[in-house]
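Hello Y.,

Per our agreement to keep a running log of every chain we model this quarter, I'm adding this entry. I've kept the format consistent with earlier entries: sequence first, then predicted structure.
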Amino acid sequence: MNDVVTVAAAAVFDGEGRVLITRRAEDAHQGGLWEFPGGKLEAGEDVRAALQRELAEEVGIHITRARPLIRVRHDYPDKSVLLDVWRVDAFAGEAHGREGQPLRWVAPEALDGLAFPAANAPIVRAVQLPDAYLITPDLGDTPPADFLRHLASRLQAGIRLVQLRAKSLDADAYLRLAREAAALCHRYGARLLLNADARQVSAAGADGVHLSSGALRQCEGRPLAAGLVAASCHDAEELARAAAIGADFALLSPVAATASHPDIEPLGWARFEEWVATAPFPVYALGGMGPDDIETAWAHGGQGVAAIRALWEA
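Predicted structure for the entry above:
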């Protein structure tokens, strides 16, 4: 087993929402590929100090506001790395390649068209995902027009990732609603995932599929060639299953006690952090979560929070 090299890396954002990437030297490990700036920790150095030093040395900036984004363990044939990645939202100085390396400011959605080391794939996804994931409640007796009006209000408030969960509708009614919801989400620059058969994603013009834990267990491989694939998980085994089918991100629940499932023991933040550390993708905390829990989720390795009521009724 190779020794694990710990690397501090940064997703640095500018005032226009673009992220900074640099190109590795041709003679370096994974040479010629784009990466997020950073470098190895020195003896006795913590991650924040290493990040501050590396960004000053590589691109000439000084961090003024940053927070954890994602930790990624990846095993290459010749070495193993643990990437401790932080999101930098404010800095002093003007970024430039102090070591002669090319650099670019890129919109997050444009990162998919660039070549990165394999270890960077989860970082790209974390950069592209928001910190809140709205799961819609079932319609019940709510007319679809009223449902869509309320969804529009949540999009106006800043929601950018939505799962359409409407299990009381038959397939045809769900597809009709999904088409309207997808068009509405796209109007606000948001993405819509369907909690339904993956074959409906293309028909609805949606952006991906969200697999229930039951659907995940039955899935033999990635259900979509293009688009996002997310999965609901409740333990480390299901997270591993989601990784095996190539999911882009997951939900892990229940982190806290919930009124809807009072008989289920919550995971708690310590176990959430332990299991998230093994996942090769971003993970949202679900179960008793709301906007006030986002920073706690970050501190325990999460992408943010997912919720129904707390995000739908906020």
